[in-house]
Amino acid sequence: MESHQSGVPLIVPELPEKKRGGGLPQQVWEESKKLWEVVGPAVFMRLALYSMNVISQAFAGHLGDRELAAFSIANTVISGLNFGFLFGMASALETLCGQAYGAKQYHKLGIYMQRSWLILLGFAVLLAPTYIFSAQLLVALGQPADLSREAGLVSMYMLPLHFTTAILLPVNEFLQSQLKNWVTAATTAVGFPVHVAATWLLVRYLQLGVVGAAMAISVSWSLITGLQLAYVVGGGCPETWRGFSALAFVDLKDFVKLSAASGVMLCLENWYYRVLIFLTGYMKNAELAVDALSICMSLAGWELMIHLGFLAGTG
């Protein structure tokens, strides 16, 4: 104090600045924990949902070569191509909900989800003929007649799954943008054993064959969708869900443009390996060739689900 009054500047020694976050290893650890909060449930959900298809495929494989080939074409080609388009369109919601949540405009998330439901359900109706007339389409494209008829029958029983997907995908994006991935993981954990039991009951006990395997997927996905909707509507998201709103019908044209552009971009990435299953049907031993390739694709798909889970984390 005296030095300051006498005109001599008071010099205070600088203390060494404390390293933020304890250095690089600590920062990596903290960021990894934040990432895994999203990635862990996302990976689990995708692995479980994909495994449901594999389980149904395995049950179909025990019925015979033709049944396995028919299920693979219906699930991978017909349902898979439509899923790729709906998945791509729903991904637009990831961007919009993420921006709205970051800007603390929480009420917009529910409106965006409702708009996405309207658009995806509308496109699901337009795509429904690919299930209804799948047998005729496959025959017209040169696939074996017997295999096409069997695959067409299975596709018809996958039609409920088609519409369920149009509802489930926006709900997943809605919850993920709020870091509520644990909800999607928990509901999938409930649906997985139900799917195993339903597949056994329909295929083995009730002797419904490959049709029962397709029905089991629709049942389990409907259960998961119902549980997630119950959480959202039942008060699990009070800030972001404020009930159904007429605002969902506003600016639908721009929302369709964004969703369609996103759908085309991602569905092309999703389609390329599914087309391989379809092309295998032109081979001499079509049933065996489709069976072998579909099993290989299923094994590769399990690994792909892990990467898609990390993709959700980066989003």
From TrEMBL:
<feature type="transmembrane region" description="Helical">
    <location>
        <begin position="151"/>
        <end position="171"/>
    </location>
</feature>
<dbReference type="GO" id="GO:0015297">
    <property type="term" value="F:antiporter activity"/>
</dbReference>
<feature type="transmembrane region" description="Helical">
    <location>
        <begin position="69"/>
        <end position="96"/>
    </location>
</feature>
<dbReference type="Pfam" id="PF01554">
    <property type="entry name" value="MatE"/>
</dbReference>
<dbReference type="GO" id="GO:0042910">
    <property type="term" value="F:xenobiotic transmembrane transporter activity"/>
</dbReference>
<feature type="transmembrane region" description="Helical">
    <location>
        <begin position="43"/>
        <end position="63"/>
    </location>
</feature>
<keyword id="KW-1133">Transmembrane helix</keyword>
<keyword id="KW-0472">Membrane</keyword>
<feature type="transmembrane region" description="Helical">
    <location>
        <begin position="183"/>
        <end position="203"/>
    </location>
</feature>
<feature type="transmembrane region" description="Helical">
    <location>
        <begin position="117"/>
        <end position="139"/>
    </location>
</feature>
<dbReference type="GO" id="GO:0016020">
    <property type="term" value="C:membrane"/>
</dbReference>
<keyword id="KW-0812">Transmembrane</keyword>
<protein>
    <submittedName>
        <fullName>Protein DETOXIFICATION 27-like</fullName>
    </submittedName>
</protein>
<dbReference type="GO" id="GO:1990961">
    <property type="term" value="P:xenobiotic detoxification by transmembrane export across the plasma membrane"/>
</dbReference>
<comment type="similarity">
    <text>Belongs to the multi antimicrobial extrusion (MATE) (TC 2.A.66.1) family.</text>
</comment>
<dbReference type="InterPro" id="IPR002528">
    <property type="entry name" value="MATE_fam"/>
</dbReference>
<feature type="transmembrane region" description="Helical">
    <location>
        <begin position="209"/>
        <end position="234"/>
    </location>
</feature>
<feature type="transmembrane region" description="Helical">
    <location>
        <begin position="292"/>
        <end position="312"/>
    </location>
</feature>
<dbReference type="InterPro" id="IPR045069">
    <property type="entry name" value="MATE_euk"/>
</dbReference>
